[in-house]
Predict the structure.
Amino acid sequence: MRAVLKNGIGVFHPQGFLDGASSIAILSIEDIEATVSQNAGMVLVSLKKVIFFNRNGLDAFVKMFHKVRAANHATVGFCDYDAKKYEAIIKFYKDDLSFSLFKTQEIATLFSSNYKNQNKNVLLYSDDKSQRAAMAIELHDNGHNPIIAQTQEEFDEKAKAENAYDIIITETYLGQMGQKVATRVTGNAIIYTVSSFLDAEIGNTFNIEYHNNSLNVGFRLFIFDAYKVVSMNVHALNFFSKLSTSAAEYNATICFVGLSFDKTPKEFKEILEDSGIMFFNHMDDILQDKELLKELGASSAANIKNKRALNKVTVTELPNFIDATVATIEMMTNSKAMKESAKVDNIEVKNQENTIASSIGFYGDMDGMVVLIFPQEIAKKACELLIGEETNDKEMILDTLAELVNIVGGKVKTLLADHDVSVDITLPRTYPDVKSLLEIVEGKKGVQVDLSFNDDKFIFFLTR
Amino acid sequence: MITQEKIEDYIDKIPPAPKILKATLTHLGNGDLVKAAAIAKEDKALNNYLKLLVNKPIYGFKNEVSEVSQIFGILGVSRAQQAVYNYMLSLLSPSKWNLFKLNRVLFYNLQADLSMNWKKILEHLGIEDKDKLSAISLLPASIIVSEALFNEKKKDVALLRSVHEIDLNTILKRLCGMDLFDIAQKIAQKWEMPEEIGEIIQAASGVKPSDDADINTLGKWMHLLLFYTLSQPQYIEADLNDFIDFQIEYVQDIYEEFSQLMEIS
């Protein structure tokens, strides 16, 4: 069984009865390796559809937790259980509870650095004092407003108030939390989380290839969440200065949030500011300020030094890209695609009304970027399969579109692997209109294929 | 991915129940084991299947049984009918499985596991009804139909499920407005199985509770039995554990009784 990966959180959904024999069958060695390589910031096992489990049944997952945390420093644990299951797990692992327990998946997301659901009013209670404190700190760090009940009575009293809290946390336990340079996308900004001491090691833990490809795909705002950074030394200073200089070539901005200069030399701040890095005290100062966010995150193709041409290897693999895209959209919309025309030139979008777009980059043995331009109707139709109902919520459509493009990317990856070409894919980026997309790809040469799905026009564009 | 036409085409291609089987079932319906065995004897494949089935360890017979009359005699009318229905279902199963890692032996084992435990459940519930006993035979139809419809789309399904938690039954329902259990019921109708069998199967999907309290209870037991069975390592390895969604709330009220009956600890 493989984990479903969404917003940087990988979740396993076993079903039925979990004992020693069944859990080993559910989680093969390959599955564990695949989970490690997914590089998720949080890995959870949902017990929602598990009606029975014993200690042996959970052990296979706990072993997987240890491996994933050792490799990726991810937060790991179980979620979606009732009081009875919670007590059972606590009893099984009384002295050895090294993973986390989240009553629901929603609660777990509060503890991941997913800024989509920020600013929640959270009532929390645990009978363990240090757990109460740990949870409150984590929640606060992640931009929520925790209210702690000190006793069960106080909790019962507070919980009675209707609509006072967005979420109530009980029966939750924080094991060792993740410590990785995690990437998370909010809107169109990428957030990296850094913590403790920043030294030469940052050059190893920071995924520079991923970062460069994100720049190439069109991300323009990179935020370092540095609330938990104790201090920074000169090696890290050099690293960030260089990062900022190279980002400037793309007109991209790098920001630090919550970095304190108690133990870091004050002049470091000036050096970093000189290299173009901005500093903010709180994540909200950027994320809640829509104007600023728009200004910093706005796409801009200016100053890109190396406009790269399509090369032979990309063109040779073109049919694979198109097949993967067409097959995915056909699968999601249950319609048939017709290829209308193909040309090598700058992108040309005739009808820009009611159109949304998405892009995904790939890198490895070959690199480039796939851009898909959808009429809103096709995007809506594809959403229906995933969410099960019609929706006009644009944010939700864009979100689902990102999932769809992720599927296209995944498919391309498998197809290329069949040809012994190994690539990785970036996070998908979405554009609410064609204008914001054109700022990225205008002037770039590429292969444009016009397709029609039951009379809806759809554009596929492959560039580097 | 899958269209309404593909489903209709699939249903159209389901062959009618063979004459010999129909006649065997008619005699079993009348409680005439001797006549039923005499007719069943003419179908060599059926003979072979019955022999394989009843000699599985789960049936617990000390000596090998090989004659149809002997087999029917041992099984009795109800279980003989169940066995014939199991055979009919096996006729629909593909010669080579692709979506699920199943084979002929494993599929027969699944039928036998479900059948034996279903008998145990009906005895526990005090139900003596040969049609209700046979209902379990139709349950694996949901697996066969999934294989037939999704086998060419294995990679697509895997990719879809890598980013979104969605089961095959829901995919089908959202794409075509018809789910695996609707198709299973259509098979039952085509084969002129008693109407009740199709209704129990629909309830056993876990997402379509029946208005009839008795059928709904049987649906719950069957849904839970399905997941109890699919939690066995050999079926998990065959990728059957999550082909449909387990509806835990639907079976919550019978779980204690079920776990006692199956001696789960």
